[in-house]
Amino acid sequence: MGVFKDGLGAFKGAKELGDYHGGMPSMGGAFKDVIAVTDDRGQNEILRSGTPAKARVLGFALPVPDDRFAMQIELDVIPPEGDPYPVNHVFPTARMKAPLSVGMEVPIKISATDPLQVAVQWDALQGSIAASGGDMAAVTQGLANTYQGTADAAGRAYLADQQSAAAAAKPAEASAADPAERMKKAQQLFDAGLISAEEFEAKRQEILGAI
Amino acid sequence: MADETRAGFAVPGAPDSFLAAFKAAPPQFLVDGGYRLVDESYESLVYEANATTTFTKLSTFGFAKTLYKLVFTFRDAGADSTGRQHTAVTVIGQAREGTRQALAQYARAASQVDG
To answer: What range defines the domain where residue B34 resides?
Structure first.
């Protein structure tokens, strides 16, 4: 009797644990996941028949909403002929064999039927990364490209603000430092009765003394 | 993987022309190792060989397959003191001992080629 009770308890415990992690997957759900992971989403066909080209990575690899098995990344495709153009490249996560970092040049193939469809040549990319110093160097360079760029932009904005503030303050400072202007201002204050004759005389002596 | 391979050497010549010559006439060790060209990019050639052992074939009833890849990347290595351009060749992938030794011999010979 105790064995059955323990077994039932273990079963309930497993179900509670499964529910806590989002529910136990059904057999059908598990098979769907396996199929989704193995789905190459047309990448192999592009790699077989596409046109070799290169692309530059413009951003970070990000998850695709409502798609657990794909990532997306902004690429600037540089075709063998014609102008570069941007592409939001969606690829199966399971196919990702190498890091993609901002600013990196990536070997790709362009679909023969749709130029917006591309496939990264992961093996060739691994070779390119090795030739550039390895994965760590690629990632470090990507971080440098990202954050130096940000710092540069922020620094440029800060300097621009400082320069414009300095330029705006300069006429005021110049006029404030000009004795004739200061004398005129003191005279206006005296004429308006805001300062006494003594105060005006003291101010006049101060301005004259500063010349 | 036990047969991981990584090598780098410089050869005389421009990357584009060396890549084209390499592709047109692959070194003998690639042919002997059963490697065939499966992909190429603007600066790389990707070779692949079936390295499945007999034991693996028997024990998995022929379902399992072991593929070895060798990726050759060709980049400009600048010019030497005489002004001659060189190409830096980087090799990564997997190869058996015999292929690795042949690759090392090829690298030594190609680095010394005067031409």
So the answer is: 4-112
* A124·B6 Cβ contact <8 A: no
Reported as a pLDDT band with limits 50, 70 and 90, residue B115 is very low
Closest Cα in chain B, distance from residue A147 (Å): 27
Q: Which residue of A has its CA nearest to B72?
A: A127
Total domains, chain B:
1
pLDDT tens sequence across A139-187 = 888 888 777 766 666 666 666 777 777 777 665 555 556 788 888 888 8
Which chain A residue shows the shortest CA-CA distance from B9? A131
Domain ranges in chain A are 2-37, 40-144, 178-211
CATH assignment of the domain containing B76: 3.30.310
Closest alpha carbon to A78 in A87, A67, A69:
A87
* pLDDT (mean) for A12-31: 75
Strand (E) positions, chain B?
A: 4-12, 36-40, 44-50, 67-79, 85-94
ipTM: 0.87
Kindly determine whether residue A121 and residue B6, on different chains, have CB atoms separated by under 8 Å: no
Q: Taking a C-beta distance cutoff of 8 angstroms, is the pair A111, A47 a contact?
A: no
CB contacts, 8 Å: B71 with chain A: 123-124, 126-127, 130
Select from B97, B95, B98, B84 the least CA-distant residue to B48: B95
What digits encode the pLDDT tens for the residues B48-72? 999 898 998 898 888 888 999 999 9
pLDDT in tens, A77-92: 999 988 999 999 999 9
Architecture of domain A40-144: Beta Barrel (2.40)
